[in-house]
Amino acid sequence: MNTRLNKTDYSVLVIVYFIFILLNCISYYKVGNELIEYLVDIPSAIITSFCIILLFMYWVIPNFLIKRTDYFSLTFFGLIILSFFGSLDYTLEFWSGSNDWNKFPKWYDLILNGIFDSTYDTGFVFGLILAKKFYESQIKISNIQKEQKENELKFLRSQLNPHFLFNNLNTLDALIDDKPNKAKEYINRLSLVYRYLIKTKDAEVMELKEEINFAENYIFLIKTRFENDYEFEIIKNISLSDKFVPTGAIQILVENVVKHNKSQNNKQIMTTICINDGWLIVTNTKSKIKSSDESFGTGLDNLKTRYSLLSDDKVKIIDMGERFEVFIPIIKLSS
Question: Cys-Cys crosslink for 137: which of 1, 71, 94, 259, Cβ 3.0 to 4.6 Å?
């Protein structure tokens, strides 16, 4: 916490001291105090209170609480400051009231009276300044954490595998001569994929409908490249409007299927993307042979990390031997 007083802190002090002066003037008027008491007591209380605040904010707290945690010194010097300025203020008030100096308190009583008076004059305004400082520091910490979270999300989104473009160009090259019409569609789908990646490169979450449209184009690229090795089905049990998932989440899940499974004996890897209330579930059959395909992204660990930054809900993974399921929470944004 920064203990240096800023412009708004001084504004608070001016307002509080103005009210302090007003209320004390009313109180003195009702009691019938002399003019000299107005001119001495009220200014001395404000000056000593302000000096105490300055010493605490610029010396005591920075040196004995922030730089090093020394509660003994914090308490000791705090009491010294309170007793000194409080005793000074008490003495001035005693003098301005034309009191009998024979009745002036002993030194130990003077110290106690000084501590009590300075605490009374300073406590509220000092507490107000500290509360304001604490609130401002919490807002600053919250903004820093938010900025850090956004930077982490952007970093995770930026971890795209360069092999993705290379593999797709190889597939396109094979299609151009043998299947020119298919090659045209492949180019169109590939352009839609990259357009989406560019459009959403800084987005933390995207509407589920947009993600599904992107996934359909991405799945087309996979099925074209691997022909009949993989089969995908998308089941929409609920409306996709006003529902969100981390940008590229479905792509990561689909890519995870391809990365970890390879067709055996002409047996397709079957994958279902099921959208239910609150959850998007990707279920796939498993094979004993992993695909040699490179991973596009950082996989499930990436997705788990992003969810930890975006939501209190967690990704669920269930490995059932012959089947593999991943549950990701559907995010509903607050209005």
Answer: 1
